[in-house]
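Entry 12.
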Amino acid sequence: MLTKLEEKILQCITRYITQNGHAPTLDEIGQLLDIKSKGTIHRYVESLINKGHLQRNGRSWRGLRLTGEQSRQLLVLPFAGRIAAGKPIEAIPEQLEINFSDMLLGDDRYVLEVKGDSMIEAGILDRDLVIIRHAETANNGDIVVALIDNGETTLKRLRKHGDRVELIPENQSMVPMIYPADRVHIQGVVVGQVRSY
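Predicted 3D structure (tokens):
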């Protein structure tokens, strides 16, 4: 069980991490909650760590991380239904959640920033972030990270033709690249993407 002040401080830290991507310092917590005593804040944050709601990585307070239900809340958003991008549809609210942790996170996942416009017709634009599942094999039609001649990597749609591999751009102004299969090594498969507006 948390005291009212512990709950207030935990909510403050959770909001701050959500908005800024890192934890607040003790001074910032004090300013946000109008608590003048840094010692009081320190004591309550330590209590939250001891109770398993926070974890401290390194010596800086910016290294605080949420654990348990608090960290899950950062990765789960309410699914509010569907929205038409063409002809309008009836708005029917739904009571579901989308768990981004299950969809996008895992030990075998990493993120790459896209440079260029070769995948724009697949909806992947310059500066988008793509979430990659590490893999050394892929299926025809997958969008893959391909290492060519152990030197250069590219993001393309994969098509296998026996002992040849075709790396297909999703941009009509560009032509596919075809290589002997032994020159192309799959590094991962796209499982999602993120774009900030």
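Annotation: Helices lie at 4-20, 26-33, 38-50, 68-75, 100-104. The domain at 109-194 is CATH 2.10.109.10 (Umud Fragment, subunit A).
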